[in-house]
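Table 4 source record.
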Amino acid sequence: VRQDTAVAALQLDSLFLALLGLPSATSISWVTANPSEDSAVYHLGMACGPLDFVRWAHVSGRRVPPEATAGKDLRKFFTGWNHHYTGPDADGIYPLLKPATE
C-alpha cells in the first residue's frame, strides 16, 4: 500500500468519525469566505480543505427516506463554538460530506 493511499484512507476514517460526532483528529466547521461562498471545511493537523455535501445519512447506516430530510438545513449542523459541527441530530441524521474535488 502506498503511503499516500494510506494517509488518504486515515483522513477519510477521521472525517467519518467526526461526522458521527465521535472523538476524532478531524474537526469540521462552517466558513464564510465572502457573502457568496460558504461551506463546510475540515481541519486535520496542518491540512484543511472544503467539503462537499453528498447526501443525508443515518448513524445506523440505514437509508434515509427523502421525507425525513425535507426542510433540513446543512448550516443547522454547525451551531457549535465558532461554527463547529455539532454531530448528528436527535433523529440520528447527519450530512455525509466528502473532501471537495475541485
